[in-house]
Design a protein that fits this description.
single chain; 2 helices; five-stranded antiparallel β-sheet
Length: 184
């Protein structure tokens, strides 16, 4: 058995490929690997780092690019880092940006038919938790139409069209503790 040191690997529904974020001397990068004995690299997303969610029925998936905070920031981890969403096309080996400002969204999983997504959404500030770096954030688990998520629809409209599934919880925190998965 071989191992590959990686952060947040995402294995494809067919079990044949994985997106992983690895550290290199040049920095962290996300890349696609074939799950064979050699973990053969297939494609790289360059210097991107973040999370990948595979579609279940369609080819490809959605990549959340995260801009890491500088480690010297004294309030690191208190403010959500900037994020952007990209759709990965495995045939063309390209990614196209579908949402420029995706900072409020954490995509957890797509429905079995890929029409919906479970998404934690930052829904406001928590004024009951004042601190040195400002008020904390609140997040809430929602079901969102995939087409709405992968569009420029303003967050307020996306929230109005989505279905909340759980009460708001502090961010960061055990946000998906009530999420198990989709029933097929």
């Amino acid at each position: 058995m071989r191992t590959l040191s990686a952060e947040g690997p995402a294995v494809s529904p067919d079990g044949g490929h994985a997106f992983v974020t690895t550290s290199t001397p040049q920095g962290r990068k996300a890349s696609l690997h074939t799950l064979d004995d050699a973990f053969t690299p297939e494609a790289s997303l360059g210097a991107f780092t973040g999370r990948f969610n595979w579609y279940n029925q369609r080819p490809g998936g959605l990549f959340t690019e995260v801009t890491p905070e500088p480690p010297t920031t004294e309030c690191a981890g208190v403010t959500p880092p900037p994020q952007r969403l990209y759709r990965w096309d495995p045939h063309a080996r390209t990614h196209s940006r579908v949402r420029q400002d995706a900072t409020p969204f954490t995509v957890l999983a797509f429905s079995p038919d890929d029409t919906q997504a479970l998404v934690n959404i930052l829904v406001g500030r928590d004024d009951s938790q004042p601190g040195f770096c400002g008020e904390g954030w609140l997040q809430r688990l929602h079901v969102v139409q995939r087409d709405d998520l992968e569009s420029d629809l303003p967050m307020e409209q996306l929230l109005a069209k989505s279905t909340p599934l759980a009460p708001s919880t502090p961010w960061p925190g055990p946000s998906s503790s009530s999420y198990i998965g989709w029933l097929r």
